[in-house]
Write a structure and sequence with these properties.
This protein has 145 residues and is of the alpha+beta class. 15% of the residues lie in helices and 41% in strands. It has one domain: Roll (Thiol Ester Dehydrase, Chain A), CATH 3.10.129. The protein has two helices and six strands. Strands 1-2-4-5-6-3 form a six-stranded antiparallel beta sheet, with helices on one face.
């Protein structure tokens, strides 16, 4: 059973369909790490053009999904409630495997450094226990609404 449903995730981060790329949060340590899940469906809007004959989830969207999971970890902290996490940098991104329709994408982001409103996360995406994407994500916490 999931820890947070899509509805509960939307109470923490501002993303909405079709750009919300996390279905559930399976594990959460506020301000430390989160593990999310994305069930990749053939009906994802990006598959219409990437690529029609051989659908592959764009790597940049896997990175975005990892960032959304990291945002849940950071924005679930009471001090950050109602705020937004913005990308500040993406480093060392590596794509080690394809993500295709039918895959269950597990997304883990660990917060490795925080200094004021700036933080860094170590992010890894898996399919069937195999690493498909890794990156270091830097984010900035901005004011909310």
């Amino acid at each position: 059973m999931s820890l947070l449903s899509a509805k509960e995730i939307m109470e923490i981060i501002p993303h909405r369909q079709p750009f919300m790329l996390v279905d559930t949060i399976e594990e959460l340590e506020e301000g430390e790490r989160a593990l999310g899940k994305k069930c990749v469906s053939y009906n994802e809007p990006f598959f219409a053009g990437h690529f029609p004959i051989e659908p592959v989830m764009p790597g940049v969207l896997i990175i975005e999904a990892l960032a959304q999971v990291g945002a849940v970890a950071i924005l679930s902290m009471p001090a950050n409630k109602g705020k937004t996490a913005y990308f500040a940098a993406i480093k060392e991104a590596k794509f080690k495997g394809k993500v295709v329709p039918g895959d269950v994408l597990m997304l883990e982001t660990k917060i490795i450094k925080m200094k004021g409103p700036i933080g860094v996360g170590s992010a890894t995406a898996y399919v069937n226990g195999k690493v498909v994407t890794q990156a270091e994500l830097t984010f900035a916490i901005g004011a909310g609404e």
